Predict the 3D structure of the following.
Amino acid sequence: MGDDLVGRAVNAVLVPPQAARFASLTGVDLDRLVLNVGGWNKLVLLDRDRVFLFPRAAAGVEWFEREVAAYRALAQTGLTVVPRLLGYWQDPEIYPFPFAAVTRLPGQVPAEPEALLDQVGRAIACWHELAPPPTSPPLLSLADARPPQHHEAPHHRWLRRALDPATSAAAAAEAASRLGRPDRAAQWAGLLARAARLHPVLVHGDIHEDQLLAENGRLTGILDWETVRVDHPFWDFDLGEWGTGLWRRHRREFSELWDRGWRGYAAVRGVDPDSRPVQAAFRLRHALRLLDDPGDPAVVGTIGEQLAHL
């Protein structure tokens, strides 16, 4: 079998009677739609200027509602790199869950996303300046939105302690002890204490190269806001969430990449441009992860490699 889709793309999401009602409701040309199944929690139908979002299953509705809430909240920023909500529907004769339409932004997934890090940092700063708005039912409150399930892993839980003013010093001591570097405890505690002083903001929570769009070297889109929540600012600078391509190309240069993104961010928000607290938080988290699961050093690096940059 080939990889080509047989039949209309819309029929992978809606059976023909549902699709006909969907077309009548939205005015879309069903033959023009393109299917994207790359998301964990949603199916996407792309039109020329619109993108239709459908939760895959009941478990995905929470994340879908959060994404819708994010688009409503971010509309006031004027950020052109964030899609705009065009419509939200609940019609069980079309689909068993709510569905929505947002603007389709120009550009493609960039081949070299690292070149955009200054622009990404500046865009992040704009939504971090936004006061997290309250939302009313049936929308999920962004202030109450939980992190993704994989944040329950021990190394992520350590990072949460490291970024909390009440537990930052203990987290630094724990890292120094577990990694066999008691001589670095004071230095790490100082860097993490600086990080912990930053206040919670509205974060995207899952930025990586597949969520970016660019055109002629200009950032044109940051997509997939289903993990948006109120959290520490550093969660939008987690290069560990980026794909293996960035790691393979720039494994030895991650400090420079963090520095580039953070300096762009700091220039907009007026915070300390020193990226060492960012690097300490994420490098120590990665070292602790490797302590539990060393993996293949050629793929995930080594503890020594991470600590050498601190």
